[in-house]
Amino acid sequence: MGLWEDAKNIRDKDPAARNVAEVILLYPGFHALFTHRIAHFLYNRKLFFLARLVSQLSRHLTGIEIHPGAKIGRKLFIDHGMGIVFGETTEIGDNCTIYHGVTLGGTGKDTGKRHPTLGDNVLIGAGAKVLGPVYIGDNVRVGAGSVVLKNLPANATAVGVPAEVVRVGNIKCCPADDLDQQALPDIVSIRISELEARLSRMEAKAQGEYPPDKPQPPQ
């Protein structure tokens, strides 16, 4: 039931998927989920070498690296998938969507729980990195290319490097697969505009205190 549900979910979410059979036979995201179930089963029974062997074979076949210890909920949609990495203590909730090039990894400084935890209905855009034992709340959307280094509240949209929350109040009743990547604010541009405005105010203030025809005091 779980794998059939995963296949139908991919078919429903991917407009390029024509039917479930195509998903089962041709989609690397589905193949990665299938092999991860086997690897995770072996991992939970402390057959660590066999678990890693299965996961590494899957990595070579699909380009998706999922550690056998990672916990994945129902109906995960991995779109394209090439270059995806999930660390050992990663936890992913139900009905999440993850695009290619995403890393759910560690910082190299943590022990024990080292990797992210995603709630339900989370979308992680292409090339985004979520690092460390951070918690990503339900219905969160992370824009493409963002780097998340701290917790994100539920129903938020975050973008940038490092990622900042730019919107709160994502739709709760729908899967987080409606992120308009083109409509997201440009955090760098906003910060530059704020600096320019601040500089203009400082220049105006300085000119008010020391008019051009009045000599300034020695420094």
UniProtKB/TrEMBL annotation:
It comes from the Bacteria. It is found in: Cytoplasm. Its main location: cytoplasm. Its EC number is 2.3.1.30. Gene3D superfamilies: Hexapeptide repeat proteins, serine acetyltransferase, domain 1. GO terms for cellular component: cytoplasm. It catalyses: L-serine + acetyl-CoA = O-acetyl-L-serine + CoA. It is an enzyme of class 2 (transferase). Pathway: Amino-acid biosynthesis; L-cysteine biosynthesis; L-cysteine from L-serine: step 1/2. Keywords: Acyltransferase, Amino-acid biosynthesis, Cysteine biosynthesis, Cytoplasm, Repeat, Transferase. InterPro entries: Hexapep (IPR001451), Hexapep_transf_CS (IPR018357), LbH_SAT (IPR045304), Ser_AcTrfase_N_sf (IPR042122), Ser_O-AcTrfase (IPR005881), Serine_acetyltransferase (IPR053376), Trimer_LpxA-like_sf (IPR011004). GO terms for molecular function: serine O-acetyltransferase activity. SUPFAM superfamilies: Trimeric LpxA-like enzymes. One of its GO terms (biological process) is cysteine biosynthetic process from serine. Belongs to the transferase hexapeptide repeat family. PANTHER family: SERINE ACETYLTRANSFERASE (PTHR42811). NCBIfam families: cysE, EPS_EpsC. This is Serine acetyltransferase. The gene is cysE.
